[in-house]
Amino acid sequence: MTCTTRLPKPVTDVWDWQLEGLCRGRNSAIFFHPENERGYARVARESKAKEICRSCPVLAQCRAHALRAQEPYGVWGGMGEDERRQIIAATRRRLKIA
């Protein structure tokens, strides 16, 4: 018989929150910028994505995931790339000082 004790455990309980996201089934282009998008187009697209996030029932889980995984692209948990970078950098600075 095959030994399965070393196989990874199911992680559905860790990812199930994604099934409830309001972004699910929507065009991902709302949440992830096309190459070279700048200025008003980027601000408008991010604003639209963040508006969807505002009423999302899994906003907190999504935001926590994005910060923990240090998601580099897109709008996650109602935060854009720059907002997440600032929080991650501030956390690193605090940990370095402590």
Please characterize this protein's 3D structure:
It holds the Pfam family Whib. One of its GO terms (molecular function) is dinitrosyl-iron complex binding. This protein is mostly helical. It has a domain at 57-98. Helix content is 49%, strand content 0%. The chain is built from 4 helices and no strands. The chain has helices at residues 12-15, 39-54, 59-69, 81-97. It is globular, with a radius of gyration of 17 Å. The mean pLDDT is 90.
Number of helices: 4
> Which percent band covers the strand fraction?
under 5%
What letter string, H or E per element, gives the SSE order?
HHHH
Class by helix and strand content? mainly alpha
Helix content range: 40-55%
Mean residue pLDDT: 90
N-to-C span:
50 Å
Q: How many strands appear in the DSSP assignment?
A: 0
Broad shape: globular
Q: Runs with pLDDT <50, length 5+?
A: none
- The biggest beta sheet, please? none
Rg over alpha carbons: 17 Å
